[in-house]
Each structure stands twice: as structure tokens, then as C-alpha cells.
Design brief:
By secondary structure, the protein is of the alpha/beta class. 23% of the residues lie in helices and 22% in strands. The chain has nine helices and 21 strands. The longest helix is centred in the C-terminal third of the chain and has 19 residues.
Length: 450
């Protein structure tokens, strides 16, 4: 499969199977986990599948629960990416290198890094299968495999990215192409898409539109641009409070939103994008573009499709309050690969990690989980190079805001939190298992009323 069609939020862009030598745990964190083997042992008390935000944060928490020597992470990639930064990379506000760190530097010291891919899960026998028919057993399993990108489901992609004027902030291989297309813009349509599938960070497809608008105004090209957001959805955002605010932004900046439009083909040599009208089956529209930003269709990782741990859609089937599997009590899920009915974001992973840590600790004691995940998620909606609407909400699509202000307003402070504070929080707190979301801060800010 093309690398464009196999990227997940667990940073699966740079993969490879290395062989690990004994004694590596005694090395510094910068050189930890850098030689390899498929597995040091064939059994671990806690086995974590995936080295993205959910997998790394949970491995850090489990290290403190059961000891590093009893925890292993299965992850083939050698680089870990902080993907929320890619919106700003695509808009020219950050460098791609700032989003990357070696995988060995983020896996907790002493935790075994198994550099391989999962090929099958057998929860009835408490084991998973890796490449080369290697079997690893576990007492507790945490599934954090992220979500897969499927550019190949759009006719003309991913090969169309070899042409100019087209980019995508969802892949390390195409995010810088977005910035190049924006810089090279001369005159015509700038089109931004949203697919007819679940996605991670559902605000990102329109964030780059607002940054592009700001850049074109700054460079004096805005009068020559027709900016349009073609979305498969029937609304601009799923929470009314923030949707209303975004529609005001759209109106003030003369942007066009076309609902129920799904990108099905890119004719990159002709600079044409073909959309299907979801309200009129069989009806298509062809738009010429000077710039095209593609948000790809997404879906569960292939190993989860038709797996015993997954629902009919291929997502890990967990209880939405405890994150414990509905059938297998020693199996748990976190993040984008689950069927939790909330927006798939790093902020959601943070909140889920705190709940899951408590869930597993009680299960280990043969007690019933009591802490409940309320569906908290967050989307810092970047609306300019110094403006953000900070959307925070729960399972019921009701605002669940941290600060005692109206977060539907564009604010400079929220932009700096997105661009400067959140990356620090990610690298130094979330991945180390110390950040479980802003609930304590919210309670303090609202004097215990929320």
C-alpha cells in the first residue's frame, strides 16, 4: 500500500523493523530502543499497541503501575509526530521539524519497544501476532492504533501530489506542499475539502482555509482568490455555539461554504477537482483550482477490520465511559481507533488517558471501574495567524469550556496557547503520563461549578 494510504495518528509514516539488543534499557533516553528485535520476551503484563499520543501516554502510566520491565509498546515507526502542529506548518507559521522527535526518545525509559507491526489480535487467547509470525501474549492489552488515511480512495491520488498546487496537512509527506501551493497562488479558486468519513481533528480542514485567507490578504492576492470550503457535512461544525461563530467568520471574510460536497477525483494535470453532490446521487461538479487542500478519507487500521475486538465498522468496541472493551475485560482502547462517539483529537486522548489509567488500576484489583469519561474533546479553531476560537465540548455536543470567558470569540491568547503552550504540554506532560486533560483547571476556574 502507498505510504499515503497507511498513515495513522500513531505516527506510522516512517516505519521499519529493527532488532533490539539486550541491555539497551541502561542507555540514555536519546539512544534507548534504537537497535532491535521483534520482542524481548513472549509475554508482558501490559502490552500497548501503538506509539502515538495514546499509546505513549498509557505506557508511561502503566510503567508507574506495574514497572517498566512489565510493559511493552508495539510500534514500527522510528519517528513520533505532534500532528496538531501541522496546521501551522501548512500555513507557514511553524517548521515541520518542530513536530518530530525520535520514537526512542518518547517511549518511557525501560519500557520495551517492539519495532514491528501487529498483524492479528486473538483476545480469546490473550495474544497478538506480529510480523514474521511472532506471537506475544499479555495479561492486559491497550489498543492505541490510531486511524488510517486513505488518499487512494480519491481517484488520481496519491500520485496527484507529484503535481503543483495541491497539498494536505494530514501527511508528513504533503504538509509542506500545502505551504508551497499557498505561496505560489496567483489567481483563481482555493478549495478546501472535508471527506465523507470519520476524521481526526475535524476542525483542521477549515483551519487551513482561514490561514490561507489571512496569507492572501497579507500578500495582496485576496481580491484574486475565490476561497471555498467543500464539505461532506451538512453543517460547518458539530457544536452550534462554535458553528455560529465560524459562520460569522465566513461571512466577514467572504468565504464560500458548499455543504454535502464530497471530493471523489483529482485531475492534477488539469488542476481539476471533482465532487459528488451527496444530496443528489450521481450528480458531480468539476471545479478548476489554483490551490487544493485535500483532507483524505479515513478509517480504522486494516488489522482492526473484522477483528474480534472491533465493531462492524472496524473500530475498537469499548464502553464509552470506562474505555474497557465490551466483551474482553482485560482489553482496553484509547484514541482514534475506538468507537467512542466524540471528536478524534489529542485533547480527547489526554482526557481518556486519565480515565483509562483509573479503569485499569481498578480492574487489576478485581474491582469495578468507577471513573467516567464524559466525551471531553477540544479543537483550537485557528482563524488567523494570531486568532483562535477554542472549542471544547462533550459527548452531547455541549460546550465544556475551561475558562470563564466566551471561548467562541476569536482570541490572541488562545492562539498562543495553541501554537506555543500546547506543544510543551504535549511533549512534557501528556506523553509522560502526567496530563489527563483540563478538568481540574476547569473546576478551579469555575469555582467548582463545572
Amino acid at each position: 500500500m502507498s505510504p499515503f494510504g497507511a498513515v495513522s495518528s500513531c505516527s506510522r509514516l516512517c516505519s521499519g523493523v529493527w532488532l533490539l539488543k539486550p541491555g539497551m534499557q541502561k542507555m540514555s533516553s536519546s539512544s534507548l530502543h534504537t537497535a532491535a528485535r521483534c520482542a524481548a520476551r513472549d509475554y508482558y503484563e501490559v502490552l500497548v499497541l501503538g506509539g502515538g499520543s495514546g499509546g505513549i501516554s498509557m505506557s508511561a502510566r502503566m510503567k508507574r503501575r506495574v514497572g517498566a520491565e512489565n510493559v511493552a509498546v508495539v510500534e514500527p515507526s522510528k519517528t513520533h509526530y505532534y500532528q496538531p502542529l501541522w496546521t501551522l506548518v501548512g500555513g507557514g507559521a511553524k517548521q515541520l521539524a518542530a513536530s518530530a522527535r525520535p520514537m526512542g526518545s518518547v517511549i518511557p525509559k525501560g519500557v520495551e519497544w517492539i519495532k514491528s507491526q501487529v498483524t492479528a489480535l486473538d483476545p480469546d487467547k490473550n495474544c497478538v501476532w506480529l510480523e514474521n509470525d511472532i506471537k506475544v501474549s499479555y495479561k492486559y492489552l491497550i489498543i492505541a492504533l490510531g486511524i488510517s488515511l486513505h488518499y487512494e480512495k480519491i481517484k488520481g491520488l496519491p500520485e496527484g501530489f507529484n503535481h503543483p498546487k495541491i497539498g494536505s496537512n494530514y501527511s508528513v509527506q504533503t504538509v509542506e506542499k500545502t505551504w508551497r501551493a499557498l505561496q505560489d497562488f496567483k489567481e483563481g479558486n482555493a478549495i478546501f475539502t472535508f471527506p465523507n468519513t470519520p476524521v481526526k481533528c475535524a476542525g483542521a480542514p477549515q483551519k487551513i482555509m482561514y490561514l490561507s485567507d489571512a496569507y492572501l490578504r497579507k500578500t495582496g492576492k485576496r481580491s484574486k482568490a475565490n476561497i471555498m470550503f467543500n464539505t461532506s457535512l451538512g453543517v460547518i461544525f458539530g457544536v452550534k455555539k462554535y458553528a455560529d461563530a465560524l459562520l460569522e467568520v465566513v461571512k466577514d471574510r467572504n468565504l464560500t461554504v458548499n455543504y454535502k460536497r464530497n471530493l471523489i477525483e483529482v485531475r492534477a494535470d488539469k488542476h481539476e477537482a471533482v465532487f459528488e453532490n451527496l444530496d443528489k446521487p450521481g450528480v458531480t461538479e468539476v471545479h478548476q483550482y489554483e490551490m487544493l487542500h485535500v483532507t483524505p478519507p479515513m478509517g480504522p487500521p486494516a488489522v482492526l477490520v473484522n477483528s474480534p475486538v472491533s465493531d462492524e465498522g472496524g473500530w475498537v468496541d469499548v464502553d464509552k465511559e470506562t474505555l474497557q472493551h465490551k466483551k474482553y475485560p482485560n482489553v482496553f482502547g484509547i484514541g482514534d481507533c475506538t468507537n467512542l462517539p466524540t471528536s478524534k483529537t489529542a485533547a480527547a486522548v489526554a482526557a481518556q488517558s486519565g480515565v483509562l489509567d483509573k479503569t485499569i488500576s481498578l480492574v487489576m484489583k478485581n474491582e469495578m471501574p468507577v471513573k467516567k469519561y464524559d466525551g471531553y474533546t477540544s479543537c483550537p479553531l485557528v482563524t488567523g495567524y494570531n486568532k483562535v476560537i477554542l472549542a471544547e465540548f462533550d459527548y452531547n455536543a455541549q460546550p465544556l469550556e475551561t475558562f470563564p470567558i466566551d471561548q467562541s470569540k476569536e482570541r490572541v491568547t488562545m492562539y498562543h496557547m495553541k501554537a506555543d503552550m500546547m506543544p510543551l504540554l504535549y511533549w512534557n506532560a501528556l506523553l509522560k503520563g502526567y496530563w489527563g486533560g483540563p478538568a481540574p483547571v476547569r473546576k478551579l476556574m469555575h469555582l467548582g461549578l463545572k
